[in-house]
């Protein structure tokens, strides 16, 4: 079973490396007065982590609201 994990790990690392090399073209990102030039792969990874952060934050806020409302009813 240990070898299966290593094969999966190496496959993921290989695909990630391939993705980064194939998407190395630059893209301009502008927000208000700031402009940044990034590789497409870096931008996709940043957007992915931003989505994970905001999604986790939203779930946490909803759970806190439900918990607070359930405490008020008791």
Structure description:
There is one protein chain. This protein is α+β, with helices and mostly antiparallel strands and about 70 residues long. The chain has one domain. Helices cover about 75% and strands about 15% of the residues. It is built from two helices and two strands; from the N terminus they run H-E-E-H. It has a two-stranded antiparallel sheet. The radius of gyration is 20 Å and the shape is flat. The termini are far apart. The mean pLDDT is about 85.
Put the structure in a nutshell.
With 74 residues, the protein is an alpha+beta fold. The protein has helices spanning 2-22, 40-73, and strands spanning 26-31, 34-39.
What are the key terms here?
74 residues; alpha+beta; two-stranded antiparallel ribbon
CA-atom Rg in angstroms: 20 Å
Number of domains in the coordinates? 1
Side by side, the strands of the main sheet go 1-2
- Tally of extended strands? 2
Structural class: alpha+beta
Shape: flat
| Mean pLDDT figure | 87
Strand content: 15-25%
**Poorly predicted runs of 5 or more residues:** none
Provide the helix percentage.
over 70%
């Amino acid at each position: 079973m240990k070898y299966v994990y290593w094969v999966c790990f190496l496959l993921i690392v290989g695909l990630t490396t391939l993705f980064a090399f194939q998407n190395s073209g630059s893209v301009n990102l502008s927000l208000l007065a700031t402009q940044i030039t990034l590789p497409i792969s870096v931008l996709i990874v940043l957007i992915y982590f931003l989505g994970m952060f905001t999604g986790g934050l939203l779930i946490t806020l909803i759970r806190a609201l439900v918990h607070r409302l359930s405490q008020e009813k008791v």
